[in-house]
Amino acid sequence: MVVALAGGVGAARMLAGMVQVADPASITAVVNTGDDFVLHGLHISPDIDTVTYTLAGLHNTETGWGRTGETWAAMDELATLGGEDWFRLGDRDLATHLFRTQRLAEGATLSEVTAEVAARRGVGVRLVPMSDDPVRTRLQLRPDAGVAEAGREVAFQHYFVRLRHDVPVASVRFEGAEAARPAPGVVAALADARRIVICPSNPVVSLGPVLAVPGIRQALSARREDVVAVSPIVAGAALKGPADRMMAELGHPPTVVGVAQLYQPFCATLVIDEADAGSAGAVEAAGVRCVVTATVMDTPARAAALARVVLGDG
Ligand code: FO1
């Protein structure tokens, strides 16, 4: 059994590689829900949906989020009505949010709904939210951010989508994390796994919320020798999203060494890209074993090759 700690797109690609080289039923993905929010009365879980759609082969490769073959009639109607259309919910994608919201209203947990959706989409990986309790990532913008919200705290999707993550951040917190419990089975899965993979996701806002749920970081530290992370930073830049800028703004070098320093307490091995081979010694000096390989998963074959390395089979 293998556990993967997952954010959005990078994690979805890593998992798509892992299912090519390992039995999907032997993989548990613990997914970030700090990005979750309610809009139009609907419970939206972007990272869970990105992972589910990707593993089901239904993901939109152009946007990086949402469904393939999407249409936008509901959004167009909403715009006509003067409704909030800054967060684009496609017609097909809407069905997922309708289903999730209804099941939660009926009393199902997020874990239960996530498993139901995964099963009906034919996803073999066990997908688990990090917690069934609400944890919400919130970002304090710097006073000099140059937008109306400067100096204020905003919700994650406000920062990420509305402001296009193009504003400097002073700090990040995970509202509700102190009271959150790991979803059922998460701690046991971490204890039992032969290997724990930290997917190439944003260390601050994708992994941060997962680690903030009491018990998860401790469970990871106890398994440190078997924890392998893939750096989301390649040659000083994030492949997607604001991880590099955000790390720098929060005082962490936006490099593989910065990632190693952040993960060192609970992770024994960091996989870095060939482009960063020159930093392998500095990663090891930070107290983390370093493996150098091709980490950019731009084809299924490359994702599978990386998965073999990460799972110790390649
Ligand atoms: N990201 C955007 O940049 N713009 C959008 O309009 C948008 C809509 C959206 C709808 C459903 C969904 O599951 C994800 C969506 N995302 C959108 C992506 C998402 O908000 C972020 O990429 C993640 O939260 C970060 O991992």
Write out key terms for the chains shown:
7-stranded parallel beta sheet; binds ligand FO1; alpha/beta; 314 residues; 39% helix; 18% strand; single chain
Descriptive account of the structure:
- The chain has 314 residues and is an alpha/beta fold.
- It contains 13 helices and 14 strands.
- A seven-stranded parallel β-sheet has the order 5-2-1-9-10-13-14, with helices on both faces. A three-stranded antiparallel β-sheet has the order 7-6-8. The protein has a two-stranded antiparallel ribbon with strand order 3-4.
- Strand 13, helix 12 and strand 14 (289-293) form a beta-alpha-beta unit.
- Helix 1 (9-21) packs parallel to helix 2 (46-55).
- It starts with a strand and ends with a helix.
- The model has no long low-confidence stretch (mean pLDDT 97).
- Ligand FO1 binds at residues 7-8, 35, 44, 46-47, 49, 65-66, 87-89, 93, 157, 160-161.
- Ligand FO1 is lined by residues 7-8, 35, 44, 46-47, 49, 65-66, 87-89, 93, 157, 160-161.
